[in-house]
Amino acid sequence: MAHVSYRPQTKVSKGEFMNAPLGYIGDTPAQRLIPAQSIVRLEKVSKTFPGRDGQPVTALREIDLAVPQGSILGVIGRSGAGKSTLIRLVNGLEKPSSGKVIVDGADIAALPETALRHARRSIGMIFQHFNLLSSRTAAQNIALPLEVAGYDRPEIRTRVEELLALVGLTDKRNRYPSELSGGQKQRVGIARALATKPKVLLSDEATSALDPETTRSILDLLARINEELGLTILLITHEMAVIRNIAREVAVIEGGRIVEQGDVFEVFTRPQHEVTRSFLADESGRALPPYVQNRLRSDAIPGSQAVIRIGFRGPHATDPVLARLARDLNIEANILSGSVDEIAGRPFGTLVVGVPETSVSTTVDFLKKHGLDTEVLGYVA
Amino acid sequence: MSPEMIKLIAASTGETLYMVAVSALIATLLGLPLGVFLATSAKGELFAAPWINRVLGVIVNATRSTPFIILVVAIIPFTRLIAGTSIGTNAAIVPLTIAATPFIARLIEGAIREVDQGLIEAARAFGATPLQIVLKVLIPEALPGIVLGLTLAIVSLLGFSAMVGAVGGGGLGDLGIRYGYQRFMPEMMLAVVVVLIVLVQAVQSIGDRLARRLNKRIRHA
């Protein structure tokens, strides 16, 4: 039997993505790109809550989402977009109003209570506010899921030591949560979530209460766990940095719908939906400098300059394309802003240039021919 | 103060402590599960049973709103059924327990409700049963609050126990009324008051200290 092992980086050849027309990502559900080895699968899931005034509130509409085994999938959305509800459906803390939630082959929504509790042992969860018991030490907190699952004492002791070592808190084992920093508390949370050796880890805004540096260290830990244990991670966040740093797949959620999903690099370098763009605009380097933004107009007047945003992706990120533009076409581009960044471990550059309004079409044709993403943003006089 | 008087005070203090201890113990055994249930059985909660919750709530409120002295008299037939008599220290334990149980239940309900909902969610997420959540999460996390609640209940019971003196229940209250008031012995009255003050102080400071030691939410230097 052929066994196709999933590696996110190699699932679709880069060439296929590179040559794909714009819109390819947005039009194609993630499931079709991925071999059918999703450990978590949501099929046409909707969730409606009874509202306060009797009007039902729809939190999620017809969500289709597949989390490939061993991957890190990030769901990003503004608050109220429905991402919390979405993640809580995966371990049955919420029941869908319609649709199916399949985790490791079992329909979570259809499981009776006892079976659901059993299934939850293979789905770990970490929380924004850590949710540790204040009355238990770090080690005792980590032991709790094991006690609940009925492990015996020696087993618990060994497992807790392993987990403390894994998250680097062996020396804090007897500290109470009130004696730990935010980052340390989340490490305890992670260790607790991993105690029963789950196959999936759900992360509910796990770094949102942490400072950037601590966030980074927690994300590094999650990435390491994903790598070393092959653990699938589904995370929800409102922070771009989280997705950029560890996710390989992203789904953008807005108004209870997934508006865009796919490979992180693809989605973020060629955003199709305005919500995705707005998340990217928060990032430095994407926004136009104010002196350009304020003078930007949509129509060309003679003598004005066209403002063009050029996206350099992957292999093109280091091409000396402006030099060629000057040499081959004698068009002098004026650099207005630019940045080179790394998304999901791949280089991505953005350059905003001004060219004489008369040579817009020549320039755009030239850039597209070189395989660069090109967008005319407007004109400045 | 004569040795007889001191002997009387000592005996009455013993009776009071006995009444309070036994009724506090029984009321806690009854009030703890009742309080936990009240805190976890509203709509959408762990043991959701909104109707039973409401009915129990009404019973608890009714018992708590009956003045203690009325309660003592009103339940005399029941007291006789349980204790075999309606007079004396053992008989006094019945109304004391009945008055203290709903009080303790409400205090425990309050302490349990103070526990962060996130902890219940976390426990559900790792597969704990509702009973495990109560025993391993809610009660341990609420313990400092529970201890303070029980301290308050015991202090109230000391006060109530003085009232059962009026119906022949024995104890310090009985002593104060019979000697201090009816026999015009102000020094006896004063002694009873002083002993009660010392008892309340002792109970309160033990309770406070225990609660503080159990509370791991605050960093201890």
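qc> Chain B touches chain A through 23 residues (CB under 8 Å).
qc> done
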